[in-house]
């Protein structure tokens, strides 16, 4: 009896924003680069459990150029690219999660990126109870220069006292990471 080979596992690139000398936002002792890496590592673990292959653009506290991040995604021909960031603002009021996609170029990629963004956002809002700031169009290098569906997540405002406290909680980051992995899984299975 002949068995069909199992289909190859789909590859996803997760991009923890910032790193090395590029701290990103910092509020008190909380640094965006560390928060992004911690969240991305958790997302990777959850995606592995679901049977996906995952590459992180960085797995430790090092600086990686924006060009290098997109080259990693494009050269590996990954199915999706997901960049993880956290917001900050001059005031303490703004709060919530927003996700960006690039709305130019191929219609297929625009629509696929927007759909991925919406599925991930819906899951994150349901899991965390955070305020939804919606899916938005953005012209960030990492979502513009990648060739596959790509999104950039802003997982909450480090400058909002309530969100700042939540972002310090391992349980909250865990919920957030699982919801991102579930959104990716839902997208790839749709």
UniProtKB/TrEMBL annotation:
Enzyme Commission identifier(s): 3.5.1.28
SUPFAM superfamilies the record matches: Zn-dependent exopeptidases (SSF53187)
Family matches, as SMART domains: Ami_3
Reactions it catalyzes: Hydrolyzes the link between N-acetylmuramoyl residues and L-amino acid residues in certain cell-wall glycopeptides
Keyword set, alphabetical order: Hydrolase
Location of the MurNAc-LAA domain: 70-185
Matches recorded under CDD domains: MurNAc-LAA
Pfam families cross-referenced by the UniProt entry: Amidase_3
InterPro entries hit by this protein: MurNAc-LAA_cat (IPR002508), N-acetylmuramoyl_amidase_3 (IPR050695)
Protein name: N-acetylmuramoyl-L-alanine amidase
Taxonomic path: Bacteria, Pseudomonadati, Chlamydiota, Chlamydiia, Parachlamydiales
